[in-house]
Amino acid sequence: MSDIAENTALADLPGPIGNCAARWLYQMLAVASLTLRNLVLRKRTLFIVLLACVPVAIAAALRYWLPIGGGRPTAHQFFTGMFIGPYVYFVIVLTTIFFGASLFADERGDRTITFLLTRPVPREALVVGKFLTYAVTVNVMLLVSLAVTYSILSEMDGDAAAFRKAVPFLTHARVLVLEVLAYGALFTFFGARLKRPVIAGFVYCFVWESILPYLPVFLKKATIMHYMLSLSPHWKSRGEILEFFVEPTPPARAVWTLLAICVAFLALTAITLRTKEYSFEKEL
Amino acid sequence: MTSEVGAVQRAEKSIEARDLSKWYGEVIAVNKITLSIAPGVTGLLGPNGAGKTTLLNLIAGQLKPSQGDVSVRGHSPWSDCSIHRLAGYCPDIDSFYRAMTGHQFVVAMLRLSGFRSRAARQRAAAVLRTVGLVEARKKKIGAYSKGMRQRLKLAQAIAHSPEILLLDEPLGGMDPLGRRRSIDLIKKLGKEGKTVVVSSHILHEIEAMTNTIVVMSNGKILAEGNVHEVRELLDKYPRKVHITCDKPRHLSAKLVEFDDVVSVSLERDTPGLLIETIKPDAFFNRLPKLIVSNNIEVESLTSPDDNVEAVFKYLVEEKKT
To answer: Is residue A92 within 8 Å of A183, Cβ to Cβ?
Structure first.
């Protein structure tokens, strides 16, 4: 309150940014800042942080309680299992469902979306701002979790250098980041479009993609998981029933496909915000 | 010359609706409304469910017209979000980012409107002072009273100095001081040449802000213009007066002698009578003398028409005829 003199009229104060591009960027950052505040203050975030700690706890338990030798799987095998199991199929999926869907579903549920949509924020800036916050927050959280898990397991066999050479962290980090982006964009769209986006997300991930191994080849390629697994350094270890019917998509194409999925669903979200009515009238 | 005059007249109208309709399934919320709103304060009056909020949401670009069109300064609010630079909207819903303080909320709304942080903070401080929330600016919104939240909604609507203001029931839940302050603010904004549309279901609230009203019911406009003209419409219709007393039959016999009394009906189970008069002022002037001279004990005297619902009812009936 000290930065303004008493009785200063609104008309005498500086107006909005004049340059369109600068204003767009600034509004996008304002959306990101508002979204970050909302994400951090939710109980859901604590749950997701705890969820991200689960693989770390498992790694720590394996590292300190399993005796060395005696036919015990190697650190490499443990990490492979940890990455495909807890991370790719569980932690990342749940995190992206809850955070991605909440970007717009929370605004709808709290009825605060009216304040966003009655401001001159371009819908694209709204989507990019929200998604940027999601992507940075979730990736940082999960990459920290993955890095800690990686560090713990790399010491497991007593030869950290050999482990790091066999299991490069950045390759796994790339898969994680792309999975967060692709699933996040899909669930962001669900959140803007559907009344119960979390349920839709669960159905997509745990019903549709769970039957992936039993699907014909062309349908396998209609899932995000296919491209995720194509990028995974552990393709051969998945043990899919119909694995021999489908070849992994080449890595470069898989990366571009996942990025294209991300952009496509974000564009659909912006279109949804332009065309869908989010009115909360007592009369309705 | 005529077309020039027409162009000037059109330019003066901030908001125009033509055959505007909005329906949800089989429910028609707004029914073929044609309306022009010029700068100044315009009161949108109607009972609950009249379609006021729907109309405001259509003007604010929150709803897509089912039929017809609406324009704000010549732009379609549904397809052109840049119109929100010109317009401020105070919605009826009581929803906020409750973990924020009032100041943080207004700053966030201003930043969304494209103001830099410093300018947003300055404006937020000024506007919170204007609505009387300067003391409570650092309190969480969750701890605000209903009236304070209403004032905060008003603050975010006017913070970016919009030319057009859409205020949906802005006085609901306010204490008398807040109400007075808000009414004065709305009147001031109207005098400054801004276009302010205020909805309410309470006639005297609207009358305190403006003489220009639009009366809505069942999604239609029943009357528009000067509030006094609308009031005059009421005088065409008999005013109902209900009296409960110890001698209803005796009183009714006396009342039917007056020319302005159209009908008197006795109630069966209670000692009451319902009178219809076409000159309520004269009727109320005469009544005390009549009661005293006939030694009648009056338990209650009410006028069922002294509420806005009755006004709408009359206007609906007039529209039908």
So the answer is: yes
Beta strands in B25-163 (DSSP E): 27-37, 40-45, 67-72, 87-90
Rounded to the nearest 10 degrees, how much is the dihedral formed by the CA atoms of A259, A260, A261, A264? 130
C-alpha–C-alpha distance, residues B56 and B43, integer Å: 12
What is the DSSP code (8-state) at residue B154?
H
Size of interface A-B (CB pairs under 8 A): 134
Q: Which helix (H) or strand (E) element contains residue B253?
A: helix B248-255
Residue B280, SS3 per DSSP? helix
Query: In the numeric block, which tokens belong to residue B39?
Result: 């700068």
Q: Say if B194 is an interface residue toward chain A (CB within 8 Å).
A: no
DSSP bridge pairs for B67:
B21
Partner residue facing A30 (CB), from B54, B61, B108: B108
Output phi, psi for A277, to 5 deg: -90, 125
Helix or strand (DSSP H, E) at B167: strand B164-168
Kindly provide the ipTM of the predicted complex, given to two decimals.
0.85
Q: Provide the shortest C-alpha distance from residue B158 to chain A (in Å).
A: 9
Structure tokens at A276: 């869908």
SS3 B8: helix
The residues near B78 (Cβ < 8 Å, ≥ 6 apart) are B58, B61, B63, B64, B65, B70
Mean pLDDT of B239-263: 88
Closest Cα to residue A175, out of A247, A91, A115?
A: A91
B48–A contact, CB cutoff 8 A: yes
Q: Please give the structure tokens belonging to residue A5.
A: 């003199």
A66 CB-side CA count, 13 A: 20
How many residues would you count in chain A? 284
What span, in angstroms and rounded, lies between the C-alpha atoms of B75 and B71? Answer: 5
Contact B112 A9 (CB under 8 A): no
Any bridge partners for residue B239, and if so which?
Answer: B277
Structure tokens at A200: 């839709």
Helix axes A123-154, A43-65, angle to 10 degrees: 20
CB A82 within 8 A of CB A173: no
Contact between B101 and B140 (Cβ < 8 Å): yes
Euclidean distance between CA atoms A254 and A221, whole angstroms = 10
Residue B66 touches chain A, beta carbons under 8 Å: no
Residue ranges of B 10-39 with Cβ closer than 8 A to chain A: 24, 29
Helix and strand element counts for chain A (H, E) = 12, 0
Query: Residue B1 burial (CB < 10 Å; 0-12/13-18/19+)?
Result: exposed
pLDDT tens-digit readout, A147-193: 999 988 887 777 778 888 878 889 889 999 999 999 999 999 999 99
The distance of Cα A156 from the centroid of its chain, to the nearest Å, equals 29
Dmax (CA) for chain A in angstroms is 80
Q: SS3 of B21, please?
A: strand
Residue-wise pLDDT tens digits, A74-111: 788 888 888 888 888 889 999 999 999 999 999 999 89
